[in-house]
Amino acid sequence: MTVDEYETIRLIDLEGLSQEECCLRMDVARTTVQQIYNDARKKIAEAIVNGLNLKIEGGRYELCDGKNHFCGCGVCMRRKGQCRKNGERSDK
Question: In which family does this protein belong, per the annotation (predicted)?
C-alpha cells in the first residue's frame, strides 16, 4: 500500500472527510482520490480476507512533530511561504 493510499483511507474512513474534502487536503483531483481510495480498499480487503501483511511504503515523508511552522490555511498544510491556496509563494 502506498503512502497516498494510506492517507486517503485515514482521511476518508477515519477522519470522516468526504472525497471532495480529501482531494482538497491532498491537493489532487477528485478522480485521483477516487482511484487511490478504490485501490487502497482493494488492498486492505485482500490483506484481511487472505491473512496477508499490509506494508505501507513509497516515497520519503516526515511525520509532523507539531514543531514545524505550516501555512495555517487548514487545507494544504504546506510550510509558510509555499501555500498555493492564496496563489502566493515565497522563496524565504
Answer: Belongs to the UPF0251 family.
